[in-house]
Amino acid sequence: LHPTQLYEVAVELCLFLFLSWYSSRRRRCHGQTLALYALLYAPARMLIELLRADPARKFLLELQTPALNALIGLPPEVPLLISTSQAIGLAVFCGALVLWSRLPRSEAPR
Fold first, then answer.
1. Would you call 81 helix, strand, or coil by DSSP?
2. Which pTM does this prediction carry?
3. 78/16 Cα distance (integer angstroms)
4. What's the CA dihedral at 12, 23, 46, 2 to 10 degrees?
């Protein structure tokens, strides 16, 4: 089993540091930091969910892949593909992509 809670903390810390730097130097408009957070967090969360071996989680699509499971250190009976949490992460990523595409391209007043 993987220490997914520690991975989550590491991802959140890295995102905090990066977004703090980004919003102080590169932010063009309001909402840009939120959209960027969602764009970066959703794929990270989807990868972390892949490493969880929680038997109680539900899947939308299941795939038994013992070879891939062995490669990432999971028991062979754990199904992979798209869990409910990964599907939510995918929806958040798509929503953030739409938000990012609709942000104004001009400078925001500071």
1. strand
2. 0.74
3. 32
4. -20
